[in-house]
């Protein structure tokens, strides 16, 4: 059956090709009266080509954008969208892209859900890397949708290994009391500062002295999420002497190793020594669990806890309409005692 005039054609090319059928549509005529064709794509069978032609006629797309490869789309996304993400999220997505190398040269429009899923299933990594790859496809899919490259998001169909139940727990009152007994020993102050401030370890090590306002009694910092960035944490009176002592040391950072910013790996080594000396049952992140548990047990306001920890309040009332002052944050953090 012949296609209607202007509908387009599917023709077979010569030679041994993986996709031998060319799908094209006439866009005009040159001075010699020959048709000027626009190539829509290629297909493995005539039926597949006719289906592609029907899709194009139903919802025409920009042919040039339809040819954009995964690598080209990622480079454009990296320029336009990535700068709006947090450093940690951006690094995870950049790393996840390496697991999609087999698809770099494919037109993004031609990539199917099963190919995306294969990059997750065959990455050979844990749930965190699988989740990062899934997150990557979600970002690229929505960006491609925004550019009219695709009309649906296959990333909505992707799955990855679930996050296992956390094994972290808060420090018991007995453990906290033992830490206080050793407060004058090297680096023990950092454990107490973490317990009474709720910082993530990366946020804590990234604090500069310029982020600490002793006059106002606050620290400002945070990473990872929009709610967590640039947040204010009141300095609890129990740890203020420790922070003041750290502020007197030379260097730009609050926590330093030999005059320079203490790295995560260096602190993990320090923590290992502290674990052996003080019999600590967890990781640095256990301090964050402990802080929230102590605040909750002390009857602190939920909105204040969320603001100090950099969490997004779960209910709309607290998230949108409930605002707290620094004095209210300070009052709530002081509810925690030894």
List keywords for this structure.
single chain, 338 residues, mainly alpha, DNA polymerase, domain 1, hpI Integrase, Chain A, 3 domains, 3-stranded antiparallel β-sheet, 15 helices, 8 strands, elongated
Can you put this structure into words, describing what you see?
This protein folds into three domains: 9-60, no CATH class; 70-157, DNA polymerase, domain 1 (Orthogonal Bundle); 173-333, Intergrase catalytic core (hpI Integrase, Chain A). The N and C termini lie far apart (85 Å). It has 15 helices and eight strands. With 338 residues, the protein is mainly alpha-helical. A hairpin with a 2-residue loop joins strand 7 and strand 8. Helices cover 44% and strands 11% of the residues. It has helices spanning 46-58, 63-66, 70-80, 87-97, 113-121, 127-146, 173-181, 188-195, 201-205, 240-247, 264-278, 284-297, 302-309, 316-321, 326-333; strands spanning 9-12, 21-29, 35-43, 212-213, 218-221, 231-234, 256-257, 260-261. The strands form three sheets. The chain has a three-stranded antiparallel beta sheet with strand order 1-2-3, with helices on one face. Strands 4-5-6 form a three-stranded antiparallel beta sheet.
């Amino acid at each position: 059956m012949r296609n209607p005039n202007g509908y387009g054609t599917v023709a077979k090319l010569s030679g041994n090709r993986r996709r031998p059928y060319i799908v094209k549509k006439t866009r005009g005529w040159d001075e010699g009266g020959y048709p000027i064709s626009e190539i829509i794509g290629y297909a493995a069978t005539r039926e597949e080509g006719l289906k592609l032609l029907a899709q194009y006629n139903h919802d025409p797309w920009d042919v040039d954008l339809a040819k954009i490869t995964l690598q080209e789309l990622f480079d454009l996304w990296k320029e336009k969208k990535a700068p709006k993400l947090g450093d940690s999220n951006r690094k995870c997505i950049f790393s996840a892209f390496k697991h999609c190398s087999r698809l770099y040269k494919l037109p993004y429009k031609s990539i199917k859900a099963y190919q995306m899923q294969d990059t997750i299933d065959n990455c050979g990594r844990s749930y965190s890397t699988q989740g990062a790859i899934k997150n990557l496809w979600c970002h690229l899919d929505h960006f491609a949708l925004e550019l009219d490259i695709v009309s649906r998001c296959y990333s909505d169909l992707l799955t990855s290994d679930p996050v296992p139940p956390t094994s972290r727990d808060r420090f018991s009152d007995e453990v906290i009391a033992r830490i206080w007994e050793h407060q004058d020993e090297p680096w023990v102050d950092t454990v107490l500062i973490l317990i009474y401030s709720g910082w993530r370890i990366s946020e804590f090590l990234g604090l500069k002295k310029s982020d600490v306002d002793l006059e106002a009694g606050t620290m400002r910092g945070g990473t990872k999420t929009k709610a967590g960035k640039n947040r204010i944490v009141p300095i609890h009176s129990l740890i203020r002497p420790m922070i003041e002592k750290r502020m007197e040391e030379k260097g730009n950072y609050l926590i330093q190793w030999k005059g320079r910013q203490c790295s995560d790996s260096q602190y993990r080594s320090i923590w290992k020594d502290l674990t052996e000396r003080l019999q600590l049952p967890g990781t640095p992140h256990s301090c964050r669990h402990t802080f929230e548990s102590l605040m909750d047990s002390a009857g602190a306001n939920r909105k204040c806890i969320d603001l100090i920890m950099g969490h997004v309040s779960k209910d709309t009332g607290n998230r949108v309409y409930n605002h707290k002052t620094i004095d209210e944050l300070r009052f709530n953090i002081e509810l925690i005692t030894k």
